[in-house]
Amino acid sequence: MTSPINHKATAAYFEEKDYFGLGKANVFFFEQGMLPCVTEEGKIIMETAGKVSMAPDGNGGIYPSLLSSGALDDMEKSRGTKYLHVFSIDNALVKPADPGFLGFCLEQGADCGNKSTWKSHAHEKVGVVALRAGEPCVVEYSEITQEMAERTDDQGRLVFGAGNICNHFYTLDFLRNTVLPNMGNLYHIAKKKIPYFDGQTTVKPDSNNGIKLETFIFDVFPLSKNFCVWEVERSQEFAPVKNGPGSPSDSPDTARSMISNMCQTWLTAAGATIAKEGVCEISPLVSYGGEGLESYQGQTVELPCHLSS
């Protein structure tokens, strides 16, 4: 899923890279929707004299866009797809179509599933998986109180510590027959700096001046009749990239380091010895989760290295 802002650039990049070997017929691009930006009083913000200020409708826009774009029909009717694995683009350690996660969801008979990793600290900027009135949900970090974020149990463990990492399983039956007819119009408020027309020119404000309305992908969780959660190790599955290079956390640098550390762990577990310093990367075509590295037993692997075959 792309937005109208980056759709052309994304599609062009995939074409330039020959669809990374997947084949053009197996890559389906579709755009999320857009919503008008408003003031805190609810008035629509104009970007120019004749143009309403618009913003993408959030990752929850995936549901109506799957239908309107024809992607849902393509999966069901053309490919016979029954299950969908959806994940955020900014996680460098994501495992696409993870057989462990998908197998767990199928074994549990789940119509919807969610991967989770325990929060690194009380105020980590991730939502938390919880129950609200007995129904599964995710409470965003911006919507949880300080007391709830810091609450601990008798062992000193966070009560609300199951971090949401935007990594989900769905049956297509659940999406078509439960989500789409019942999801409604639940919007979350994001206060942002929104360019506006002052009567003469477009002004770029220095502080938040308006609201972007967003739908969240996890807001359909309460509709699930059999929801399951799969907790994973952060070091193996969650390396978010949300900040720029050089940032101390959630940056390209920290994600690269986590990938390298994970790959070194795999090699060590296979019986290899790591020498020197540098980045280590193992192509997923060589090993998906640390398997198939027996040939490195007793060998010394010098860093930096990229094992691609």
From TrEMBL:
One Gene Ontology biological process: UDP-N-acetylglucosamine biosynthetic process
Catalytic function, reaction form: N-acetyl-alpha-D-glucosamine 1-phosphate + UTP + H(+) = UDP-N-acetyl-alpha-D-glucosamine + diphosphate
InterPro entries: Nucleotide-diphossugar_trans (IPR029044), UDP-sugar_pyrophosphorylase (IPR039741), UDPGP_fam (IPR002618)
Transmembrane segments: none
UniProt entry keywords in alphabetical sequence: Nucleotidyltransferase, Transferase
Gene Ontology molecular-function annotations: UDP-N-acetylglucosamine diphosphorylase activity
Pathway participation: Nucleotide-sugar biosynthesis; UDP-N-acetyl-alpha-D-glucosamine biosynthesis; UDP-N-acetyl-alpha-D-glucosamine from N-acetyl-alpha-D-glucosamine 1-phosphate: step 1/1
Keyword Nucleotidyltransferase: yes
Keyword Transferase carried by entry: yes
EC number: 2.7.7.23
Enzyme class: transferase
Family, similarity comment: Belongs to the UDPGP type 1 family.
Protein name per the record: UDP-N-acetylglucosamine diphosphorylase
Protein's organism: Entomoneis paludosa
